[in-house]
Amino acid sequence: MPSNDTFQGHRKRLREKFIKSGLSGFHDYEIIELLLSLGTPRRDCKPQAKEAIKKFKSLRGVLEASPEELQQIDGIGPHSAFGIKLVQAVAREFLKEKIIEKPVYKSSQEIFDYLYHSMRDLKKEVFKVIYLNSQNQIIDTADLFEGTINSSSISPREVIESAIKYNAVSLIFVHNHPSGNPQPSKRDKELTKDLVYAASIMRIKVLDHIIIGNNRYFSFANDGLIEEYELDFLNLKIKGVSEAKRRLYRAKLFDRFT
To answer: Structurally, how many domains does the chain consist of?
Structure first.
């Protein structure tokens, strides 16, 4: 067992390394070790940190573990568990403020980072809408539907009515796949197309539809599908106008010869 001087020296070197260059070059267990040292400053935390990584597989896994799960590891008490959960909550709030303060139409990764923690373990599909203003800043988010997400269970009318309520200029849709596979189904694509069409009618822009899976996501915008649906709607609109003009011309001809 290392002496008190040994682990104190080791901990001091970790702290100095962090102050100098942040977390670059740190192993996951070393990051956890630093967090645990905040709650137990006079004890060697390396064994508990390594055990935590072994049990929860990754740094993300440790941060997402519940206080009860963390305290199942010998040597991790309520103070240390509190410190880990506090850091997770602060990081989540930071990400939330970060995406609110900047345009997000190019930041599907930031939307994923913010919502992943709260949606990854949901047993049912939840459909969220993010409302944005003309500067692409987030006004608010809302859970509109829960259950099987498809074009029959989600009402485009309700989505657009909620957008008007928030005076939103644009929207981002997010839902989860409990299976862990974020690839869109045929129903997901049909739903997204319907929502893009409905929003376009009201001159509201759909920036993205993000599907959250297990530590990964699918972005309709990044894959070019949002743009494709917008072009489809525009072509239908042009075709509809042309058809209306042809009907009017035929009606005038009919009137002329009657």
So the answer is: 2
Distance in angstroms (rounded) separating the CA atoms of residues 234 and 238: 6
Cα–Cα distance, 130 to 210 (Å, whole number): 11
pTM summary value: 0.62
pLDDT, one tens digit per residue, over 75-132 is 888 888 888 888 888 877 777 676 666 555 567 888 898 888 778 777 889 999 999 9
| SS3 state of residue 138 | strand
Q: Judge whether 254 lies within some domain.
A: no
pLDDT one-digit tens code per residue, 40-81: 766 788 889 899 999 988 887 888 888 899 999 998 888 888
| Phi, psi of 220, deg, nearest 5 | -65, -35
Residue ranges making up the domain that contains 118: 103-242
Rounded (5°) CA angle 14-63-109: 100
CB neighbour class for 33 (10 Å; exposed up to 12, middle 13-18, buried from 19): buried
**d(Cα 59, Cα 49) in Å, to the nearest integer?**
10
Total residue length of the chain: 258
Alpha-carbon distance 69 to 75, whole Å? 13
- Does residue 188 contact residue 211 with C-beta atoms inside 8 Å? yes
Instruction: Assess if residue 129 is contained within a domain.
Output: yes
Domain end position, chosen among 78, 96, 114: 96
C-alpha separations of 122 from 114, 116, 148, 164, 180 in Å = 15, 10, 13, 28, 10
Is there a domain that residue 205 lies in? Answer: yes
